[in-house]
Specification:
The protein has 186 residues and is mostly helical. The protein folds into two domains: 82 residues, Rna Polymerase Sigma Factor, Chain: A (Orthogonal Bundle), CATH 1.10.1740; 81 residues, Winged helix-like DNA-binding domain superfamily/Winged helix DNA-binding domain (Arc Repressor Mutant, subunit A), CATH 1.10.10. It is built from seven helices and no strands.
């Protein structure tokens, strides 16, 4: 048996209960105290220590118990402070709103002609430019603009105003559509 294994066995046999008692005073839970001592022993014995006497090692292990406990406490406190930033709200109504919006968009798209629907989906869902849509569908850019304009005007009664003033010749940007278009499988 290696010298470090003998020192570890001697430390656990003679001072194990005292170390767990010390950890218990820190955390207040017997199981967590045992875990703290085990983690501290691993941290202490993975590094080569010169003084392998149980009296010297106990100080190292106690310090490792304290450090491990404080690191865990800081981690839990930090997580409690930022936990609300990582998850969605627990309210169940948020799903209903998203589902209703998707159903509204699907119903509104159903009233468009196939070319209008294709142009609107490519523009606002796939975020293609007019030129890219024209190349994809083998249409002229003017035809794409016309399909987009007609499609947007036909969607407005169902979805509300999708664009500001279209009289300037500018087409609405994708960010101006208030709901997310869903992909449809054919």
């Amino acid at each position: 048996m290696a010298r470090w294994q003998e020192a570890l066995e001697a430390l656990v046999r003679t001072r194990g209960a005292a170390l767990v008692g010390y950890a218990y005073l820190l955390c207040g839970d017997r199981r967590e105290a045992e875990d703290l001592v085990q983690d501290a022993l691993v941290k202490t014995f993975t590094r080569g220590r010169l003084g392998l006497e149980p009296t010297n090692l106990e100080g190292y292990v106690r310090r490792a118990v304290l450090t491990t406990y404080l690191d865990g406490f800081r981690r839990r406190r930090r997580w409690a402070a930022i936990r609300h930033l990582t998850g969605a709200s627990e309210a169940t109504g948020a799903h209903d709103v998203a589902t209703d919006a998707r159903l509204d968009v699907a119903a509104a798209l159903a009233v468009l002609s196939p070319r209008e629907r294709t142009c609107v989906v490519l523009r606002y869902y796939d975020d293609l430019t007019v030129a890219e849509i024209a190349a994809t569908l083998a249409l002229s850019e003017g035809a794409v603009k016309r399909y987009l304009s007609d499609g947007v005007h036909r969607l407005e009664p169902a979805l509300g105003s999708l664009a500001g003033d279209l009289t300037s010749g500018d087409l609405p940007e994708p960010e101006t559509i208030p709901v997310e278009l869903t992909r449809r499988t054919r």
